[in-house]
Amino acid sequence: EDVLKAVDDMMGGGLAKKNKAAVEAALAGIVGELPDRRFERLTDAVYTDYAHHPTELECAVAMAREVCRGTLRVLFQPHRYSRTRALIGDFPGSLAGADELVICPTYAAFEDPVEGGDEADLYLACREAFPDGKKVFLARSTEEAWTHARLSMQPGDVTMLLGAGDIIKLSVVIVLMILVCILVLRKLLKSLNITQALKLGEE
Questions:
Q1: pLDDT per residue over 158-198, tens digit each?
Q2: Do 88 and 117 form a contact (C-beta atoms < 8 A)?
Q3: How far apart are CA 194 and CA 203, in angstroms?
Q4: H or E stretch at 76
């Protein structure tokens, strides 16, 4: 019910509740597959992968590069402070295939912060390791990272969501946005059909 209300708040008119079964079925399908996600396509321009270890990250970025015709934008959420600190020298190289990198807040997984292992440390490591010209950003939240990616997207670009933490929730947000667009389009087409029928009736 909260999800349906959120959709209706975004678009108004109660369309989500009127199409409750379709919305719930779509969400159930995507959420049910998220824990096992490996290079899962959300749209032609957005993919998600559970990768959070350097070797996995390098493979995921390479796969994204294969389908990207424009800018490859990677949103990465480090998983655990201890892992980030232990592998901080390996992460930059594994993410170097991206044209643009957005580092999201570290997913703690019940760990307390560890010196040298948070997102700011990884951001600095990537800035130092990457050649001049590669864009590296530090986001205050996964939502902020997605907003940046969405507003920056151009035809041919690909955004890759990487990590095993709550960045997974962005997948649901993106699916909701797609559903909103579909429902709005259906409403618009229905309105156009009614208008056209009225015009034909007047002739």
A1: 999 999 898 988 877 777 666 666 677 777 777 776 556 55
A2: yes
A3: 15
A4: strand 72-76
Contact 139, 122 (CB under 8 A): no
pTM for this predicted structure: 0.72
Please write the tens of the pLDDT for every residue from 73-111: 999 999 999 999 999 999 999 999 999 999 999 999 889
Whether residue 102 contacts residue 139, with contact meaning beta carbons closer than 8 Å, is answered with: yes
Q: What is the DSSP letter of 36?
A: G
CA distances from 20 to 3, 49, 107, 175 (A): 10, 28, 32, 15
Q: 12 — alpha (psi -120 to 50), left (phi > 0) or beta?
A: left
Backbone angles phi, psi at 13, to 5 degrees: 90, -5
Measured distance CA(29)–CA(31) in Å, rounded: 6
Tokens 């560890």 identify what position? 114
CA-closest candidate to residue 30, choices 189, 181, 183, 171: 171
Alpha carbons 116 and 93: distance in angstroms, whole number: 18
CA distance 113 to 80: 9
